[in-house]
Amino acid sequence: MTLGDVLRARIARNGPIGLSEFMAECLLHPTLGYYTTRDPLGAAGDFVTAPEISQMFGELLGLALAQAWHDQGRPARFTLAEPGPGRGTLMADALRAARAVPGFADAAQLTLIEASPALRARQAETLRDHAPRWIESFSDLPRQPLFLVANEFLDALPMRQFVRAGPAWRERHVGLQDGNLVFGLGPALPQPALQARHDDTRDGDLVEHCPALAPIAETIGARIRDHGGAAVIVDYGDWRSLGDTLQALSGHARVDPLADPGSADLTAHVDFEALALAAPCAHSRLTPQGVFLERLGITARARNLAARLTGTAQAELIAAHRRLTHPDEMGNLFKVIGLYPEGAAPPPGLIP
Ligand code: SAH
Description:
Layout: H1 3-14, E1 17-18, H2 19-28, H3 34-37, H4 50-53, H5 55-71, E2 78-83, H6 89-97, H7 104-107, E3 108-113, H8 117-126, E4 133-134, E5 146-151, E6 160-165, E7 168-177, E8 180-189, E9 206-209, H9 213-227, E10 229-238, E11 247-250, E12 253-255, E13 265-267, E14 270-271, H10 272-278, E15 282-283, E16 287-288, H11 289-295, H12 298-307, H13 311-325, E17 334-340
Helix pairs in contact: 5-6, 9-10, 12-13
The protein binds S-adenosyl-L-homocysteine.
């Protein structure tokens, strides 16, 4: 039985399901979900992320967090957290680079949030020297200073889509037609959560809303407000998005999200305004990834690494630098936001 069979049977029985239920099942169904069943990263997988492109990404993020820790008086014990750590590559690179900052690693309690058993096993292997522990949800984050990094985590959270219909909204759902999964629209209903979008939308416009985003931002922000710390969050998206950003990727190519549920990665752009508004602490300006990495000195780091390489390895490093920073590659599509205590300095590379 495929996940497609499971969903078709459910829809035939109970009627259409919302897009967030569809996304949640595709990504995290306990036995047939995309993330539950595989390690999708890397050249042989479905997509490549920044930390898998080059060690420079994790190194610079690690040094930025270590500097923020230093700037806040080097708390003797803190949570070093990463949700959705993938293969653990970013955190391994971060901790290796942060060895240059005395005391940081000893004070850190490495805490990961990961829904996929396959990837948890991979993280345990990559990070075995750093005694990681896994927590089930953000509310389990200890009440102590929190330094958190996340890359391409929030884009995997299930979201809902709504089409404007006068003063109301029609939710986009997944139904059945001639035995096939198809997108459809539910009845026009009021949506208090979308009140702010009445100002910047017209009839027929589609907006997205990720219900899990605000509670996560609220919890992270509350730890930072109450105990100190900082978060550096990197993802696709913009301050406020308009239109359908649901994307399915398989084998590095875009595919139809309804074609074979559970076999492709599903993502949506992150609504950084919603994140910033929900976090009860200060937030930085939303900054393009390329600008952020340049400010942290990626070009100097790349030159330094390249000087020690020759031939293909050197060419690959130069290509990786371009891929991470150039506006035509990941430099502009990906954005970075920092969360930090009111009155403190934002994490390096970010401005208030
Ligand atoms: N940060 C990594 C991996 C990004 S892929 C990198 O940059 O390479 C998304 C990651 O989030 C995977 O580890 C996936 O298993 C995890 N994930 C997706 N949805 C999740 C959820 N609801 N809770 C916890 N982890 C989740």
